[in-house]
Structure formats: C-alpha cells, structure tokens
Amino acid sequence: MVVTCLDLEGVLVPEIWIAFAEASGIPELKKTTRDEPDYNKLMNYRLSILKEHGLGLKEIQDVIATIDPMEGAKEFLDELRSLCQVIIISDTFSQFAAPLMKKLGMPTIFCNELVVAEDGEITGFKMRCEKSKYTTVRALQSCGFETVAAGDSYNDLGMIRAGKAGFLFKSTDKIKADNPDLPAFETYDELLNAVKAAL
C-alpha cells in the first residue's frame, strides 16, 4: 500500500507566516522554510519578533481564519484521497492547522504543538520528533507502507527523497536548481498525474 505524504503550506494553502506578516505589517515574519533550512532557528526568530511586538496566538488565528486553500487544492486532495491514503506532514502547529483542515475536508495531518501561556503569548513549541517529515515517512515505511511525497521547501527534501517517488511542487528556483534530479511541477494536474504514475 502506498501513502502519499504532502506538505501543507505552499502546497495546499498559502504560507501562514507570510499572510500574517502582511496583515501585521512586519516584513521580517515573511521568512519561511524556503529561506531558512534550520526550522528551530526560524521558529525562535519568529517568536522573538512576536514577543517584541506583543503579538500572540489570537492575532495569528484571526489571520488564519481569512486564509483559503489554494485554488484547486481541495479538488486535488479529494481525487488523490480516492486513489490512495494521504497524510499531510507539516512543521506547522495544530493551533494553526485546525481551521484549514476543515476547509480541505478534514484530511489527516501530522504537525506540531505550540506552547501558549494563559494570556495567549506563544512561549515555545514542541516538535513531534527530530526531522519530523523524514522520520515520519521512515516510520510509515517500517510499518510496510511505500511512500510518495511532495513539498516545496528545504524541510521537505528528506521525505521527498526517502520514498519510492518524490516531487517538488511550486518550489523556488534555487531549491529546484539545487535538486535537478527531482521532478518539479507547478499545477495540481501535473502533480496528480505524477503521483498516479508512481502508485
């Protein structure tokens, strides 16, 4: 049995931190895993900026409530789920992802948890495991599943390369240039056809 593993932000929904950076007028928060391969470093940077500006979970959730999936994402996901099991593996947080999952038809997501104080300040974050995307696909493989994966960022490369097939989707020119052996697609139809061929 094949499980298709997908990244969330940049693949199915817009980047949450970019949307929040634009809504809050804080351009430093536009930095994502497309720019910074070290996720812990990136999150600590984000938390320090939030603290500096007195912003907490509620302000971010208010912006997330305005975000819709990318055009065609739900239809792509629905068709893919009719062909195989699909798990979204994301370095985002359950407190961010929940409303977006409703808009995507409640697919399975494995993500992380924010540590939030009573006043709403985000004081830290708990990652499910080290190298969470790669570790998760290896765990699925250890249970007898084959994996196919797609993502757009540095933190997706481990899971993309670990399976029987892997693809870049809506990635940056730099990541594509650094990984010329990985098929790179821009449309859901292209990605769906590539996954079908791998099943």
Structural description of this entry:
It is built from nine helices and seven strands; from the N terminus they run βααααβαββαβαβαβα. By secondary structure, it is an alpha/beta fold. It has a domain of 128 residues: Rossmann fold (3-Layer(aba) Sandwich). Helix 3 runs parallel beside helix 5 and helix 4 packs parallel to helix 9.
Helix content: 40-55%
Radius of gyration: 16 Å
**First-residue to last-residue Cα separation:** 9 Å
Summarize the biggest pleated sheet: 7 strands, mixed
What low-confidence regions span 5 or more consecutive residues with pLDDT below 50?
Answer: none
The number of helical runs is: 9
Please sum up the structure shown.
The chain has a domain of 128 residues: 3-Layer(aba) Sandwich (Rossmann fold). Helices cover 44% and strands 21% of the residues.
Key attributes of the depicted protein:
alpha/beta, 199 residues, Rossmann fold, globular, 7-stranded mixed beta sheet, 7 strands
Topology:
Blueprint: E1 2-6, H1 16-24, H2 39-53, H3 57-64, H4 73-83, E2 85-93, H5 94-103, E3 108-116, E4 122-126, H6 132-142, E5 146-151, H7 157-162, E6 165-169, H8 173-178, E7 184-185, H9 188-198
Parallel strand pairs: 1-2, 1-5, 2-3, 5-6, 6-7
Antiparallel strand pairs: 3-4
Helix pairs in contact: 3-5, 4-9
